[in-house]
Amino acid sequence: MTTETTSSSTSSPRAFAWARRRRAVARFWRQYRTHRAGLAGLAVLVVIALLALAAPLITGPDAQSVTRAPGAPMEDPSGRFPLGTDQFGRSLLYLLVWGARVSLVVGLLAAFLSVAIGTLVGVTAGHFRGWYATVIMRITDWFLVMPTLVLAIALATVLERSIWTTVLAIGVTTWPTTARLVRAQTLAVESRPYIERATALGGGHGHIMSRHVLPNVMPLVLAQTTLVISSAILTEATLAFLGLGDPTVVSWGGLLQDAREAGAVSSGNWWYLAPPGLAIAVVALAFTLCGRAVESVLNPRLGASR
Prior knowledge:
Largest sheet: none
Structural class: mainly alpha
CATH topology of the largest domain: MetI-like fold
CATH superfamily of the largest domain: MetI-like
Oligomer: single chain
Order of helices and strands: HHHHHHHHHHHHHH
Strand content: under 5%
Shape: elongated
Radius of gyration: 24 Å
C-alpha cells in the first residue's frame, strides 16, 4: 500500500504537468487555426520540408553529379526537364529540390543559434543589471549599428567555407534584436511581486532565471525564432550568391551564383534565375506569415490592434 501511495503521489504531479501542457498546445492550435495567413504559410513550409526530406527518392542519387549529367548544358524547359538544365546539364528542378535541404537546414540552425545567444544575453542583462548589464548592452548596441551582412561576410571570408561557417556567421551577427526584446520582457517579469517572494524565500539567481523568468519570455522567444528564420534564409542565400557558401553543396543561393557565372542574365535564361529566387522569397514569406500568426496568438493585444 505504501509503495502504491508513493508511486501515485510522484506520478500525479508529472501527469498533471503533461496534461496542462497538452491543453496549452491544443488551445494554441485552436487559436492559430483562426489565422488564415498563418495556416497558408504553415502548409507551404510542410510541403517544402517534405520535398526536401524526400529529395533522394524524388531525384535519384545522380541528380547533383556533374560527370553523369543527363542533359546538355543550358537546355530550355521541356517535358524531360521542366525547368531546363544548368551549365553542366543537370536538371534544375532536381537541383531546386536538393537546394531546399541546405537552405532550410542552414536557416533553421542559424536562427536557433541567434535566438539562443540573444535569449541568454537578454535574460542575464535584465536580471543582473548593474555594470554587467551596462557593458553587455553597449556590446549589443555596437552589433546593432554595424551592418549584419558586412559582419557575416567578414566571418565567412576569414573562416573555411562550409555550412557550419555560414551558420556561425549568421548566428553570431543577428542576435542583438532578440537580446533587446528579451531584456525588456525580463525587466517586466522581474518587477512582478512573485519574483520578490521567490527571492525572499531564498531563490538564487539560477532558480529565478530558469523557473520564473525564462518560462515567461519563451512565448516572445518562440515568435522571434519564426521571424529570424526567414532573415537567416535570406542571409544564407546572399552569402552563397556572393560565393561565400559551401561550394560542395547545392543551395538556392548557390544556384543563383551559378546562374550569374554562367551568364544567364545576359543570355536571357530566365528558368535558371527565377525558380531559386522565387523559392527563397516564398519560404521567407511563409516563415514570416507563421511568425506573425504565432505572435498574434501569444500576444492577443497585438492581434486586436491590427
